């Protein structure tokens, strides 16, 4: 069995479903079920004895030792994190509590458990920490993509809290010998993505006839990674990654945000045309840029390819089409996640007085 933390969130839930499909090895899934942790993401596993779900906090120093002793996992994959930059700007303390304090307490619990294992089990055990490319800061237009040795220069409360968690994981390895692995991924997209992030927000707002809010000039560049590819990369790193190493995981898809929005609109024009015959692009609305908005991220994923033989299976064209089709086919899921708190958040974050593009 493996322990997955944050396994009801977007990437975590995709990973749990993917893991059980690919390997069949049971999963103990620990998730706090905050706004982004959604049990409906795991509906396909209902009644599956290989999936054990526990609602709980990685910072719970009483719960973690009990779970580890009871279920005896051979590995921990840590997805649990507050992860939305905009939310971190409005409320940074939640990010410090989960991403820094929570990670510290998780490491302490796992270290105590690991030290009590028999020699062979202790040697085989792994703690895989899932992080982000945002810890590296922002790139200029002509700068080389982020490698694993790039200096950390986080620019938002979110990325600073994730950078801190990365450093803590590294320290627990070098100080205590805990066998850790870290992955730093680029922007994920795909099924079950909470609709406050760019791609699902554009899909949901477009279908609802609402404005499509684009920050600033929309020329912020990101590397886009289909979530199923990210899951396969984590499986590979857990299987064969060198202890103590960092692996950058990217999709080789650098694109500006505005191009992403135009692509989503074009797919919706094809797959679910507006009744008035206009393009969804007419709903694009440029809004005030957020504070400290990083201009460009780009991942150099050659290390994971050269060492572990991993490359993404999806191009952006294939991945984005699958994503739009999934949201069109799962309107009930979208309706359920659009709670009053979610609508309040979107209203607060995006200026309704913005000029339409």
Mean pLDDT: 92
Q: Low-confidence segments, ≥5 residues, pLDDT <50?
A: 352-357
User: What name is given to the CATH topology of the domain at 2-189 and 225-253 and 293-314?
Assistant: Rossmann fold
**Between the first and last Cα atoms, what is the distance in angstroms?**
51 Å
- Which strand-content bin applies to the residues? 15-25%
Reported CATH architecture of the domain at 2-189 and 225-253 and 293-314: 3-Layer(aba) Sandwich
Any idea of the CATH class of the domain at 2-189 and 225-253 and 293-314?
Alpha Beta
Give me the strand/helix succession. EHEEHEHHHEHEEHEEHEEHEHHHH
Total E-strand runs: 12
Summarize the structure.
The protein has 357 residues and is of the alpha/beta class.
């Amino acid at each position: 069995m493996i322990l997955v933390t944050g396994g009801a969130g977007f990437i975590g839930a995709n990973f749990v479903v993917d893991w059980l499909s690919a390997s069949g090895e049971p999963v103990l899934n620990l998730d706090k079920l905050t706004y982004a942790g959604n049990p409906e993401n795991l509906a396909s596993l209902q009644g599956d004895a290989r999936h054990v779900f526990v609602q709980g906090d990685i910072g719970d120093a009483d719960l973690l030792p009990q779970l580890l002793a009871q279920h005896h996992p051979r590995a921990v994959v840590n997805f649990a994190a507050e992860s939305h930059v905009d939310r971190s700007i409005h409320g940074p303390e939640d990010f410090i509590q989960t991403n820094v304090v929570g990670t510290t307490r998780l490491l302490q619990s796992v270290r105590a458990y690991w030290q009590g294992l028999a020699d062979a089990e202790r040697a085989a055990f792994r703690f895989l920490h899932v992080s982000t490319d945002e810890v590296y800061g922002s790139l200029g237009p002509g700068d080389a993509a982020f490698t694993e040795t790039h200096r950390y220069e986080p620019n938002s409360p979110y990325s600073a809290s994730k950078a801190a968690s990365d450093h803590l994981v590294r320290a627990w390895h070098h100080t205590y010998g805990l066998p850790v692995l870290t992955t730093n991924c680029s922007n994920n997209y795909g099924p079950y993505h909470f609709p406050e992030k760019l791609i699902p927000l554009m899909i949901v707002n477009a279908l609802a006839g609402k404005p499509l809010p684009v920050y600033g000039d929309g020329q912020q560049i990101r590397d886009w990674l289909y979530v199923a590819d990210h899951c396969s990369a984590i499986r590979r790193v857990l299987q064969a990654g060198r202890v103590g190493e960092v692996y950058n995981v990217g999709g080789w898809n650098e694109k500006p945000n505005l191009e992403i929005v135009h692509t989503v609109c074009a797919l919706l024009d094809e797959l679910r045309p507006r009744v008035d015959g206009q393009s969804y692009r007419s709903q694009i609305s440029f809004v005030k840029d957020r504070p400290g908005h990083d201009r460009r991220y780009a991942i150099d994923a050659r290390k994971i390819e050269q060492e572990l033989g991993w490359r993404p299976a999806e191009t952006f064209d294939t991945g984005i089409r699958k994503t739009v089709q999934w949201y069109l086919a799962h309107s009930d899921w979208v309706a359920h996640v659009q709670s009053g708190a979610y609508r309040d958040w979107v209203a607060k974050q995006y200026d309704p007085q913005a000029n339409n593009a």
